[in-house]
Amino acid sequence: MVSWNSVPLEITYQVLGWISFVAWSVSFYPQVILNFRRKSVVGLNFDFVLLNLTKHSSYMIYNVVLFFSSTVQQQYFQKYGRDQMIPVAANDVAFSMHAVLLTIITLFQIAIYERGVQKVSKISMAIVSVVWLAAAVCFFVALPNHSWLWLINFFNAIQVIMTLIKYIPQAIMNFRRKSTDGFSIGNILLDFLGGCTNYSQMIVQSIDQNSWVNFYGNIGKTLLSLV
């Protein structure tokens, strides 16, 4: 694997990455704490949470496999060149694993706290079912030729699609209620900070390597930050 050319840029990359990790990870807690204090999840859209779990689960699969699997890393180098760096950092792995855990906790709160007449929509359930069915099909397609990079890129695509649509149910619900009561603004502010620092981290890596491959080599991370 190629090494860093500049120590200051490497340090900046690590600092930005862990700021992003802290911001994105802490962003889950305001909502969890708000639900706990109110003993209610009224105002929190259940479709948002379900789509979020699918998004973070697929993102975790992508990050963990690319970060830890030497086989997949070799496939990445064969596709993009051995002079490129793996576009997944330790903070990406830590964040995605933490995100899955906190989203599961939020789903548990939905199960035990007052939720009024709210429920998961049939549309969201259908979307999630189709996504995981497609992932299962892709696994068996990739299996004969061990096309694991292609497979995890599919999971990366899933997380991008989920990121694009997951906010829509919550935004519509806020509009209809003319209220954001029950939905924590802390989640959004920290999410925004995490996106900015994560994107900046990728810029720093590109400057150091004098290459923009990491932007399209990990298009999921790029779009995640921008969205």
TrEMBL record:
Name recorded for this polypeptide: Cystinosin homolog
Q: Which GO terms describe its biological process?
A: L-cystine transport
Give the membrane topology: Multi-pass membrane protein
Give the domain of life: Eukaryota
Which SMART domains does the record associate with it? CTNS
One Pfam family here: PQ-loop
Membrane spanning residue stretches = 15-36, 57-73, 93-113, 125-142, 148-168
What molecular functions are annotated in GO for this chain? L-amino acid transmembrane transporter activity
Q: Which organism is it from?
A: Citrus sinensis
Keywords linked to the UniProt accession? Lysosome, Membrane, Repeat, Transmembrane, Transmembrane helix, Transport
Principal subcellular localization: membrane
Q: Which InterPro entries match?
A: LC_transporter (IPR005282), PQ-loop_rpt (IPR006603)
Q: Name one GO cellular component term.
A: lysosomal membrane
Q: Where in the cell is it found?
A: Lysosome membrane
Tell whether Membrane is among the UniProt keywords: yes
